[in-house]
Amino acid sequence: MPRLVWTNERGGTTFRIGDRFLKWNPRNTGIDLDAERLRLEWAVQYHSVPRVLGAGADEEAQWLITSALRGSGAVTEAWIGRPLEAARAIGRGLRLLHDALPVAECPFQWAVQARVGHRVATEELRVPPVDKLVVCHGDPCSPNTIIADDGSPAGHVDMGSLGVADRWADLAVASMNLDYNYGAGWEDAFFDAYGIRKDEYRVGYYRFLWDNEDSIGVSSVVTRELGLLGLR
């Protein structure tokens, strides 16, 4: 029997059916499951992500059928009570993803200009100098890391925004989301597991972008808000 495992705020649902997952999403949500299909089919060559088993669409909705990865999501009951291990697995898992996916071969972009739809001139976006280009997950929130029973990272799911960007675009969001899922105090473990020191400037910038990318469109607003954050 299908078991509902996730409902997003836009009306999309995810069901588990045996060793498969079925995603169903209404057309009017702004989420494109075909974009995720293309990214999964590319990423599976290099990293542990679900295999695409089927996909389709009609006038009302899209759907995507994928295999299940071994392990459990980082915010399932098994890991909510073990936040230190979860934070380490998320950090290590993100490093494995960044190291595995080849930038030169990636046909997808998640750079700042692409995310805001080129609605703002590049110079107005005040983008920090690139630290290191990687293929970013694009939605590195805690639930999208799968953890094996032994606490090691087992792979990633929900790859619909995957693309090339500075690694801090992922790091800023992944570290921020730890507080939401586990409470405060786990960022150091995350950054240690990834193998990097926290860059306050880049973290501030990419967290601001994450919270505001859908509304960015007036350059004066961007400049003013970044100035208030000390990011000008």
Automatic annotation (TrEMBL):
Domain Aminoglycoside phosphotransferase stretches: 121-201
EC id: 2.7.1.95
Chain residues that bind Mg(2+): 144, 158
GO molecular function: ATP binding; kanamycin kinase activity; metal ion binding
Residues that span the membrane, as ranges: none
Gene Ontology annotations of biological process type: response to antibiotic
Name of one Pfam family that matches: APH
InterPro entries: Aminoglycoside_PTrfase (IPR002575), Kan/Strep_kinase (IPR024165), Kinase-like_dom_sf (IPR011009)
SUPFAM superfamilies: Protein kinase-like (PK-like)
Residues of the active site: 139
Enzyme class label: transferase
Catalytic reaction(s) noted: kanamycin A + ATP = kanamycin 3'-phosphate + ADP + H(+)
Record-linked CDD domains: APH
Keywords for the protein's UniProt record, in alphabetical order: Antibiotic resistance, ATP-binding, Kinase, Magnesium, Metal-binding, Nucleotide-binding, Transferase
Membership in a protein family: Belongs to the aminoglycoside phosphotransferase family.
Official protein name in the record: Aminoglycoside 3'-phosphotransferase
